[in-house]
Amino acid sequence: DGGITQSPKYLFRKEGQNVTLSCEQNLNHDAMYWYRQDPGQGLRLIYYSQIVNDFQKGDIAEGYSVSREKKESFPLTVTSAQKNPTAFYLCATHSPDRGYGYTFGSGTRLTVV
Amino acid sequence: ELKVEQNPLFLSMQEGKNYTIYCNYSTTSDRLYWYRQDPGKSLESLFVLLSNGAVKQEGRLMASLDTKARLSTLHITAAVHDLSATYFCAVEGTNAGKSTFGDGTTLTVKP
Question: How far apart, in whole angstroms, are the C-alpha atoms of residue B102 and residue B4?
Answer without folding.
Answer: 5
